[in-house]
Design brief:
The chain is an alpha+beta fold. The protein folds into three domains: 82 residues, Potassium Channel Kv1.1, Chain A (2-Layer Sandwich), CATH 3.30.710; 97 residues, Serine Threonine Protein Phosphatase 5, Tetratricopeptide repeat (Alpha Horseshoe), CATH 1.25.40.420; 252 residues, 6 Propeller (Neuraminidase), CATH 2.120.10.80. Helices cover 27% and strands 28% of the residues. It is built from 17 helices and 31 strands. The strands form eight sheets. Strands 4, 5, 6, 30 and 31 form a five-stranded antiparallel sheet that branches.
């Protein structure tokens, strides 16, 4: 009997005809234009729209339920629809048959409403994005009210941000006076109000009440708790108590006294009351220098040793919280996280479990570069082996619900700088957008938290020993220890370019690594130089700001104290500080 012939395994492959997909939609659109095979007529405000049940059902769950159920409409040749604008429905139908959506300011709101009812997610999301992009003086209040009714979060947030940035001017407009009490209190409760004094908020409330005094005076007691009396002087509070509106309404003065008596230190200063300050650590004492060279402000704050442990790293989060990592310099004791209390100008335990509990105990982290980062409001701890031969980067993610640190993907590095004494890695780590980046002179790696993976990107190549890097928008700027060149990395195009006009320290003896920082949306660099070879603590400090349009760096003529400062990060962290809270020199 002859042996059966050998049959190789069938390999299944799938093919997708893109031209068929586009051609099919085009053909359906042609059928609609030609009026062929239409089996239902939708009537809206007396206007008739012949359509195909199959097409409508395929696109919209609303129509699918209508035509595939026992509803009367499933058997009718003409279906009358209520609650739609015929012109807007025509645009919806055009999208259904062509995939193209035409949006304008005069139609976007009814278009959103129609899409919401018909459950057309793409149309609804496109309208949301369009409204958010068109928030301005003439549209803000109208869009704000609409977004509130339909719970369009992206538009509500954009409107609130616009009003907060322009609050002083906006509070004199008719649009402000037309706000409901709910919207008013929502706005004046916002941390991001760009006001220099809290009295500006109180005066805006007075104008809003007086615009319709009889109808609004009774709302005053419910509005007053949203005024931040902790930011007012006692004289300001006394003047408010004597204001005719307060004296006229018996409940208002009682509310004010209760609010003042109880106090609420958790009510933050408004954005406009704060000043951006770079944070530097005193290398030889328990002190912090808060500095803003552009405004010539330098405030030194000294803390008791027991109140300010050794700071290995300082980070500022998107909600303006300042954290420090601390670990004993001579041992691998548990790592602690401290948080800065702005109002008290003190450092307090952040109440997080020690990341050391979740580390592999065989790793000696005493000499590692350790950093704390925030990505999309999640804290990450990153430790890199900077002195050794492993070239590894470890990472843990903090889960605030379980108070545990979860180990994430490791990163294996290839390159290390070797001198006559040891293997040393010059590196910088930072966040940019929703990603973490780790840079050396020969490698760039990007961590995607959604995938828990590191991806290699294009390295800078012509920088020897990257020591400082900072993000601004979607770009990363970095330089080396010796100020030989600065580079800009575009994270979107994965490409590098040199920055021109790099500052030359001249004959000065640059003592410590330079540090980049971003303040008021401009790139800065700070470095220190020795004044006296025999005095290791006394330093001259230089700060430059970069003018991108001119491609030039300008010396800000910094007048910092001549002490030794260091940045506990790959760059100088910058926070918004309410200067009256600082008790310094």
């Amino acid at each position: 009997m002859a042996a059966a012939p050998h049959v190789s395994a069938v390999r299944l492959r799938s093919y997708q005809d893109e031209s068929y997909l586009h051609g099919f939609l085009g053909t359906v659109g042609d059928l609609q234009k030609a009026g062929v095979l239409q089996d239902v007529v939708l009537e809206i405000e007396g206007r008739r729209f012949p359509c195909h049940r199959l097409v409508l059902s395929a696109v919209s769950p609303y129509f699918r339920a209508m035509f595939t159920s026992d509803m009367a409409e499933s058997r009718q040749k003409t279906v009358v629809l209520q609650g739609f604008d015929s012109g807007v429905f025509g645009d919806i139908l055009s999208y259904i048959y062509s995939g193209t959506l035409h949006v304008s300011l005069d139609k976007v709101q009814p278009l959103y409403q129609a899409a919401d009812l018909l459950q057309l997610d793409y149309v609804r999301d496109t309208c949301s994005s369009y409204m958010a992009m068109n928030v301005e003086r003439s549209t803000c209040v109208d869009l704000y009210k609409f977004a509130d009714i339909f719970s369009v979060d992206i538009v509500q947030k954009q409107c609130l941000q616009w009003i907060a940035r322009h609050f002083t001017e906006f509070s004199f407009n008719e649009e402000f006076y037309s706000l409901s009490v709910k919207k008013l209190t929502e706005i004046i409760s916002h941390d991001e109000l760009d006001v220099k004094e809290e009295t500006t908020v109180w005066e805006a409330v007075v104008r809003w009440v007086q615009h319709s005094r009889e109808d609004r005076l009774h709302h005053l007691p419910s509005i007053l708790p949203h005024i931040r009396f902790n930011l007012l002087t006692s004289d300001d509070t006394a003047a408010i108590l004597e204001h005719p509106l307060v004296r006229e309404d018996p409940g208002s003065s009682e509310v004010i006294r209760n609010v003042v008596q109880k106090g609420n230190p958790n009510l933050k200063p408004r954005l406009g009351m704060t000043t951006e300050m770079a944070i530097l650590s005193n290398a030889f004492s328990k002190g912090i220098l808060f500095m803003n060279p552009r405004e010539g402000k330098y405030i030194c704050c000294n803390y008791r040793p027991e109140d300010f442990p050794h700071d290995k790293n300082v980070t500022v989060t998107s909600d303006n919280n300042i954290y420090i990592l601390t670990r004993d310099q001579e041992s691998n004791e548990p790592l602690s996280v401290y948080k800065y209390n702005h109002a008290g100008n003190v450092w307090e335990d952040a109440g997080m479990s020690s990341v050391s509990k979740w580390q592999r105990q065989e790793n000696d982290f005493t000499w590692y570069s350790e950093n704390l980062f925030e990505v999309d409001q999640i804290l990450y701890y990153v430790a890199a082996d900077v002195v050794g031969d492993s070239g590894l980067v470890w990472m843990w993610k903090y889960n605030r619900h379980t108070d545990q640190w979860q180990e994430r993907s490791q990163l294996q590095l290839r390159y290390q700088y070797i001198n006559e004494n040891h293997v040393y890695m010059s590196c910088a780590a930072l966040t940019c957008g929703s990603h973490l980046y780790f840079l050396t002179s020969a490698e760039v790696h990007c961590y995607d938290q959604s995938l828990d993976r590191w991806f290699e990107r294009t390295p800078p190549m012509n920088i020897d020993q990257v020591c400082t890097a900072v993000a601004m928008g979607t770009e990363i700027f970095c330089t080396d220890r010796y100020l030989t060149q600065a580079m800009m990395y575009d994270t979107e195009s994965d490409s590098w370019q040199e920055l021109q006009g790099w500052p030359n320290p001249g004959n000065r003896d640059v003592d410590l690594s330079p540090y980049l920082f971003v303040m008021e949306n401009q790139l800065h660099i700070w470095f220190s130089c020795r004044i006296d070879e025999d005095d290791i603590e006394e330093k001259e400090h230089l700060v430059y700001v970069y003018d991108r349009s001119a491609g030039a760096w300008t010396d800000l003529k910094a007048t910092m104290p001549t002490k030794t400062y260091i940045a506990r990060s790959s760059h100088c962290p910058v926070a918004r500080i309410y200067l009256p809270y600082l008790k310094g020199e």
